[in-house]
Amino acid sequence: MDANRPKPPDLQGSKAVVVVLVTVLLLIVGGYWGWTQNGPLGAMLGVMLGAALGALIYTVVRVSDHSNRIAEPSAPDVRELPPDQALQVLSALMNAAASASESGASFSLGLLGEIAAARDKASKKGDIEGAIKELKRLAEEHPRSSAVSAELSRVHRMAGDEEAAKKAASEALYLALRGGMNGLALQLFAEFDGAEELTLEGSYWEQLARILDHADKPEDAAKCRARAGGGSESE
């Protein structure tokens, strides 16, 4: 048999317990009824009848449960996407939230969903202060999330607070480099003219320079190496 072949969905939880109990009850009732009608042979036939009815009930409930699972739409898994692309996907999902709720769809968005909600609050609803407050809360709850700091830097820029934006972007760049998120690091570097505006420890400037070399951006890499030699430190 192929070990990779997908297995059919099975019943779980309370439905499985109910089906098992009903099947056992049918076996007992069938055996008793058969015994009263025709002795041992009738009891055996009654048990077989109870087993058949139990199997039928199990099949019907299983098919119904599987159909319900197929009918329920779910959000795509964005965990493998770069943070900014994932946020774009989640923002699109949130734009469709009203119609989705009417059709019974539900999405579990998690941290990236909360970041996307803060982005929409700032860019579409104009509530920049509320977005900053929400992102700061998320930053406290998820201090290692580069995506939170990156979005916070963008919202600070929308508010015209360049110093706060640079500080948040520097933190996001540091976390991205530390977490191996090279794509986000390059994006932040481009958004903020990183070699001039952001601050990092020297070793991280060197790491960023290697990433820029790999991205075929030798001039930016040289700027980062110059900063590495200067020994600038992140705040």
TrEMBL record:
Query: Matching InterPro entries, A to Z?
Result: TPR-like_helical_dom_sf (IPR011990)
Keyword entries, A-Z: Membrane, Transmembrane, Transmembrane helix
Transmembrane helix is among the record's keywords: yes
Which residue ranges run through the membrane? Answer: 16-35, 41-61
Q: Give the protein's recorded name.
A: Tetratricopeptide repeat protein
